[in-house]
Amino acid sequence: MGLRKLFSIFSPNHQNHEDKILPSYSPIRDNLVKSPENPHTNGYPRSFIKYLRSLMSGKKSGGGLRTDEEERVYSWLYALAQSDKDLVFEYVQSTERGLSFTEAERRLKENGPNVPLEYTFPSWWHLLWAAFFHPFNIILIVLSTLSYITSDNPNGCILLILVLISVCLRFYQEYISSKAAMKLYEFVKRPVKVQRCAGRVVQTELLVQVDQRDVVPGDIIIFEPGDLFPGDVRLLSSKHLVVSQSSLTGESWTTEKTAYTKENQSTPLLELKNICFMGTNVVSGSGTGLVVSTGSKTYMSTMFSTIGKQKPPDGFENGIRQISYVLIGVMLIVMTIIITAYYLKSRALSESVLFGLSVACALTPNMLPLIVNTSLAKGALAMARDRCIVKSLACIRDMGSMDILCMDKTGTLTMDHAIVVNHLDSWGSPKEKVLRFAFLNSYFKTDQKYPLDDAILAFVYTNGYRFQPSKYRKIDEIPFDFIRRRVSVILETEFNADGRNGHVLERIMVTKGALEEIMKVCSFIDHISKGTMTTFTSEDHSRILNIGEELSNQGLRILGVAMKRLEMERSDPSITNYEFTESDMVFLGVITFFDPPKDSAKQALWRLAEKGVKAKVLTGDSLSLAVRICEELGIRTTYITTGPDLEQLNQDDFHETVKRATVLARLTPTQKLRVVQSLQTVGDHVVGFLGDGINDTLAIDAANVGISVDSGASVAKDFADIILLEKDLNVLVDGVEHGRLTFGNTMKYIKMSVVANVGGVLSLVIATLLLDFEPLTPRQLLTQTFLYSVGQIAIPWDKMEEDYVRTPQKWSMKGFPMFILWNGPVCTLCDIANLIFLCFYYSANGSNYKFFHSAWFIEGLLMQTLIFHLIRTEKIPFVQEIASWQVLCSTVVISAIGIAIPFTIVGDFMGFTTLPMSYFGFLVLLFLVYFTLGQVVKRVYILIYGKWL
Questions:
Q1: What is d(CA 424, CA 551) in angstroms, rounded to the nearest whole number?
Q2: pLDDT in tens, 552-587
Q3: Per its UniProt entry, which superkingdom is the organism in (predicted)?
Q4: d(Cα 323, Cα 772) in Å, to the nearest integer?
Q5: Is 408 known to be catalytic?
Q6: What is residue 420's predicted lDDT score, i.e. its pLDDT?
Q7: Of 196, 191, 186, the residue nearest 224 (C-alpha)
Q8: What's the helix, strand, coil split of the chain in %, to 5?
Q9: What is the pLDDT of residue 754?
Q10: pLDDT digits (tens, 9 = 90+) for 911-922
């Protein structure tokens, strides 16, 4: 993604972060952090201090997968979750009245503004320097400078133009990429209701609104539906509180929170009932809470503190740099030999240096930066046509190398909304009556609409049910709360009691909610098929629980439905002073829901598997639901695991489990990150991660290829390398194909250019040592190099063989030297054969050096032009496999120009002469031998090493 953003996750006072887990003014910090080994501190029980010691040690029983900073945040929050309110106030040095304005101002200065992360953009000159400082650019600039020194201005100008184009392309790419910045500041732009105290003699509690940036540890906040939590908060009071943690977990389901509980160590952090986290929001209910952590010390900020630091090194770029250093060494050695040999023969130092410089230019793959960036830009344009925006061009190569794709489930594999699967009675049979009463409950409830209510309404309307809600009138509603975990509506309707004109008013209570809670208030059970009602027995209870468990194991969500008739005399229809109690109700059945997989997902996963890309599902949702989705999509579920299980593993077992598992559920954002890192480091895989939530950002940033969608969270899109404009995995499959095409064409150029240049320069060295004159003049050699380089511009438009695109492709520096050793000598042998033929058949020597120059120029140019066709395929070139028409046209044009030059005025100016047709007949024979010998070497090489490119 170019230069990564540099983050400063600590506040501007630059204090040691170990001292800032608790406020620096808190005497409790020594007890909780610095001196946990003290068996008696302020009278706290030994067991509690022992527990804190184990937490604060920064070590895990499972191998220390969390960082020390994360361990301190975990310990702090767990300690507060397990403590009484009085202790919590003491821990953060606050009171039940809140902080004074003076104390709050002092803490704000000490802790800094309540900002999740502080970050800076890399400056434009930094990006420009990074684009400029590339080994091949440096080589070209040095050669250009030497060209100007030796008065070879045309060559120096050409080299500088190549550098300019390469630097501009890369600078533009990195500059656009750097504009993707984190938007976590969206969490700090809202006012927060805070309770403060004022007064010198009598303390008065005041309710004020402050900017979220000004909230400090120790503040008491008051929240209601729609509010965001400004920091990590220990609840003090709560009423029907329901919180959405989708910003941390990525799952749309809400969670219930309560202040009236004490947690234990075994509860996962994000499931703590009395702790609310920065960035999460209130869905319903209200309450008060004590802010215990702000800014960079919150769970969310700690989670994001690794942003920009986890990206693995680019193996391709490292390989290019290694080749660059090798070529620099070879170039210096060859230049020294050439200059020394030529000087000993001619005694002309300036001409010797100029000729050596020309050889160095011929040895350097001048077009490498331009070819690489052009290939990537072409791939980016092709992916853009497929509704796929590429922010980092380098990631296109990684797409071709990707062999594991990790993805979130919600919105990626599924449609991200629930649908009704069935409406079952107490014996598991579909019954319309169950659906009718569930519909009435969802239709008339007004306190809070949930996605499951929308699913029920949509199911009824789209399937043509006519339940006539207009015949009912809503009387009252008992809203949902986390204790009852159900919602009830009281409705009134008329019915014809005796078949004549007399109508009777009837009131009913319809209740819907968690299955266990619904069964608690039921005393009867409806035999819908028989039209009878019986007492709710223990056998009924066990049977329904078993049905519910079986449905849950199938990955379905379940709601129970019950009703109760509240008869009322017609003569007094307006009586409302009654007490409605949810008791002695009639159990009707259950409604089951499912977030269905996308129609296109199964086909896309199959296509990815055919291309050697394995899929792993990393989700924060339940295991049963994830397994159900994966089974429907054809993802193997023979080995599965969960986040809490991973927490208990040591490092070796963790890596082995991650390697084998295909479904990993109930993962926190940091666990997703560690799974990706494990696959990269231990498994040596190139990993892509597809996600759309804030909880996915860590993994997106760390993956070799970070992928998000246009509808995803802004933070996820900011750090993604690729953004899909459609939530369709088939677009990603096309991206993999483009990535492998780009990678393959780049590898063609690198291998072909290095083989051709090394082989050609070795031939020049041998010819220089054997002949009494230079094989080519500097001007002729530079012209040959220029024409050859121009002809390579068409390489990005070449096609790849189907077998190559089917498998992931990775850079391997180990095989590169062997590739050169096997193929370079073939070029040199043909050049030497040409040298022998010219010297003995045409007697080309010092007296007719123009003939030799002309023949050597054409043979060298044709050799370097045609070698691409031998390198580009495992098959027989021009017979079994033909290059794209762009490459063929380039080959024909450059070859024609090279052959024609000696017969033109330009040839006279450059010191060439015409050649007989017999020589061209020899060239045909020579290249037939070259392609035959090269094909034999190719087959033997593939037989030994198993691959070609």
A1: 11
A2: 877 788 999 999 988 665 434 443 433 457 888 999
A3: Eukaryota
A4: 33
A5: yes
A6: 92
A7: 191
A8: 50, 15, 30
A9: 82
A10: 888 889 999 999
Each as own residue / partner, the long-range contacts of residues 837-840 (CB below 8 Å, 24 or more positions apart, any chain) are 837/922, 837/926
Residue 846, judged by CB atoms within 10 A of its CB (0-12, 13-18, 19+), counts as exposed
- How far apart, in whole angstroms, are the C-alpha atoms of residue 824 and residue 756? 7
Query: CA 606, CA 565: separation in Å to the nearest integer?
Result: 53
Tokens of 543: 């049977």
Contact 533, 526 (CB under 8 A): yes
Q: How far apart are CA 425 and CA 821, in angstroms?
A: 76
Percent of the chain with pLDDT over 70: 79
806 and 737 Cβ atoms separated by less than 8 Å: no
Nearest to 767 by CA among 334, 330, 333, 326: 334
Helix, strand or coil, per DSSP, at residue 638? coil
User: What integer best gives the mean pLDDT of the chain?
Assistant: 78
Distance CA 546, CA 528 (A): 20
* Euclidean distance between CA atoms 345 and 945, whole angstroms: 44
703 in Cβ contact with 689 (< 8 Å): yes
How many alpha carbons fall within 13 Å on the CB side of residue 358?
27
- Give dist(CA 415, CA 886) in Å, integer: 43
Q: Is the pLDDT of residue 169 over 70?
A: no
**pTM, rounded to two decimals:** 0.67
Measuring CA to CA, how many Å separate 480 from each of 238, 485, 905?
14, 6, 93
Structure tokens at 55: 């937490």
**Does the pLDDT at position 470 exceed 70?**
yes
Q: For residue range 251-299, what is the model confidence (pLDDT) as tens digits?
A: 656 788 888 888 888 888 888 999 999 878 887 788 999 999 988 888 8
Gap between the Cα atoms of 299 and 231, Å rounded: 9
The residues, ordered by sequence, that sit 6+ positions from 771 with a Cβ below 8 Å of its Cβ are 845, 846, 852
Residue from 219, 232, 408, 425 carrying the catalytic annotation: 408
